[in-house]
Amino acid sequence: MTTASARRIALVTGASRGLGFAMAEELAARGWHVVALARTVGGLEDLDDRVKAKRQPGAGEMTLAPMDITQDDALSHLCRSIHDRWGKLDLWVHAAIHAAPLAPAPFIDQKDWDKSVAINARATGILIPMVEPLLQAAETRATAMFLDDPRAGEMYFGAYGASKAAQMALARSWQKETAKVGPRVLIATPAPMATATRARFFPGEDRAALADIGAEAARLVDLI
Predict the structure, then answer these.
(1) Which of 3, 78, 88, 223 has the fewest CB atoms within 10 Å, measured from its CB?
(2) SS3 state at 12
(3) d(Cα 11, Cα 89) in Å, to the nearest integer?
(4) Which CATH class is domain 9-223?
(5) What is the DSSP letter of 211?
């Protein structure tokens, strides 16, 4: 029987849709116990149903964590619960993102700007110091994975591009700081995929030419 400490534990933030959903599903299929965090309860329940329906011998399990990533107290409680239950994390995949509608810089909606900064930048800065001790407690060198989407400076991508660039700047600083002592900070750039977010950014695009989300999730999990 696998002991609690021997299980590979992964936290996937932004697991209710898109690439986060697919990566959580892929990790569970490969035997990881996945803590799936997202605000959308229905999406998390769909994820859990898919994992249970496809479960094979040796597959992992899901723990659903429905919460708003901008709520510091909820994140702190979750990390404390992970510590109390497993004592560690082996992997953190940070897929949570707010994709604000495209708009010229002078016309960015203030609420969309505030939400972009809160989810894409501020929450990352809050999560890193909470998650880092759990990653350091892993028996083998743990990994934090960030998903880059370089849009900074592109026309109409002001809110998304600037806040995502802030997230990645923080991730790259952490990557350099931990190069020798861990955890490993892995930054990957997913291929263009047929996600709902991309459909909003590029309406009318030929989606047949885009990468399959499940296949891209498998490729990224292979990197881990």
Answers:
(1) 3
(2) strand
(3) 7
(4) alpha beta
(5) B
